[in-house]
């Protein structure tokens, strides 16, 4: 038993004036209480308690020691309780990082609605399309559209699938022709959506059939909304998440291309630093975010 625990046992005996009563209050056995106080006295080299068959009382040194350490122990207990209370309340700062398109299209409503319910939460939001190190960049929560992370030290949570599809503007297809098979894409301008604004490999599947196409030989960008705008402008064919192009598809500014062919599955995920226990504010926000993107505004 450490010094702090032994001091707490000593104070309990001093308050109860009984080893047995202190043991009962601390849910310990009387011999354990006796050993703890004896060990503390041995480490201090001072007798703290007078023991008789009828009662236990403080020595003068014990009284002086109890007077000094009792406020310190109480302060530590109060600090621990305050910390636990803070962790159990939906309050405090949440530092969030998200992709640009997700941040601009989805997060304003999510954050506004969440803060209406939990006004004691503050949010610091940064947007970037690159994968970040949540620990090195001091981020509480990273929202990502990707495959599962390879970093085994972080915590990650799958939220939902993010459908993607090939799209192009009607005027582009009218001028260049509508592809009937993935091989036809070799003769089209395929706009890459790549974190480094470089070429992008499109792995497409129809049942057991697989095809691989390289996009970005002519045009590429590292932002989904920019890629979508290039496609709307008739610059070529793009492979994008549905939530980015849903409005353009609904209004006819974009059309689906090769609808029978699908790219690899991507997931919307939440990534956290390696907490032993997720703080309440993060757990509550994560649940709210999941409900929003799966029920209120499905991806």
From TrEMBL:
- Residue stretches making up the HTH lysR-type domain: 1-59
On whether Transcription regulation is a keyword of this UniProt record, the answer is: yes
**Single annotated GO MF:** DNA binding
Entry's InterPro entries?
Answer: LysR-type_TF_proteobact-type, LysR_HTH_N, LysR_subst-bd, WH-like_DNA-bd_sf, WH_DNA-bd_sf
Classification via Pfam families? HTH_1, LysR_substrate
**Presence of the UniProt keyword Transcription regulation in the record:** yes
What keywords sit in the KW lines?
DNA-binding, Transcription, Transcription regulation
* The family this protein is said to belong to: Belongs to the LysR transcriptional regulatory family.
Q: Which PANTHER family match?
A: HTH-TYPE TRANSCRIPTIONAL ACTIVATOR TTDR-RELATED, HTH-TYPE TRANSCRIPTIONAL REGULATOR
Under what name is this protein listed?
Answer: LysR family transcriptional regulator
Species this chain originates from: Pseudooceanicola sediminis
The major lineage groups are: Bacteria, Pseudomonadati, Pseudomonadota, Alphaproteobacteria, Rhodobacterales
